[in-house]
Structure prediction request, 370 residues.
Amino acid sequence: MENVMARNEFQNTAGFPTASSASPYGGVVAGPLQAMMAMRTGDPMEVLPNEAREKFRELEQKRGDAGILVRAIVEDQQQLRIDIQRHQNRIKELQTPRGTGGFDLGDDAPQVISERRTLEEKLAEQRRLTALNEARSTVYQRIGELVRNVEQAVAARPAGCIGQMVKIDLRAFKGSILDAIEARRQRCRELKADLHRVRSAPWPSDFVKQKMREQINRVAESGRPLVEQAVEHNEQVSFPSQSHQVRIFNSDPAAIGYVELPNTLEVVFWLHRDELIASMERAVDEIADDQSALTEEQRRDAEAEIHVDLLAVEREECALVEIAQSQGLPADYRVDCDVRAILGFEWVPAPARVPREDDGQFGVVRRVGP
Prediction:
């Protein structure tokens, strides 16, 4: 029985529909088509340490539980819609004239009042279930996104690396644990704002001018007239041309064609290269902000430092969330939080493989005995 279950689990990882791969409503399969399946072997989470893997399994279990709750509400809603329609039809039947198959009762008839009262109760229950369904669906979607983020992070891990747990030393904090979580999240928002400022910083004017000169020189060289044929073979000077697509209107159906036209822009660049460079350098100087500018190296160093600080703060935040959840407090992981912080690990180079004594001897037949 265990072998059969293991085989089924392997098949599910290859793309066969399972309860976890379906939508919470049980009717839509999220896995790939069988003709597009890519066979996968083993558990991709094996690169994570046991403690991180256990946290991931807990997230998967929470996603499954949330899906069950969503499906249960959907079934109740379906039955409720049937009951509401039945009561509405009954009220219509009671108030339909006798000549057309009804009972011709007024709004003050006890039967009509009773049916309306029951209908209002059903409608109120429908509104309650709708609100509850939206809340539970939000939880299911959030946990599902967390699970997908972990799977994507593991699939995109650095080559040759495995996970290793990280010990978090929480700093002392004032107020409740929920206040401490919010303080870390506020710090994360500040760091992300710093990251945005670094990425939005202007570039140094010297760097921009250098790239601009390279661009103009490249275009100008492509517009240089070819005089070699005139000098060597007494032919006409050749000017650069460019292919353009044109529409042909006097054909049915409509057609398109191509025509070669002189590339006058490139020739202008070649002819007035120095004047164009000088004018564009003056334009750069007018809007340059070298005091706030950052070079490529400065941007890279600043981003790396911010990412290190951000991950450290997110590790503290997730550690506090874990403590709050153990105390039954309403705390959840952020969907956009780093997976390494949620599961509490870091990527480290995998240990070198220890060579075996029989490496490279596959197929060698050894004779044992006399």
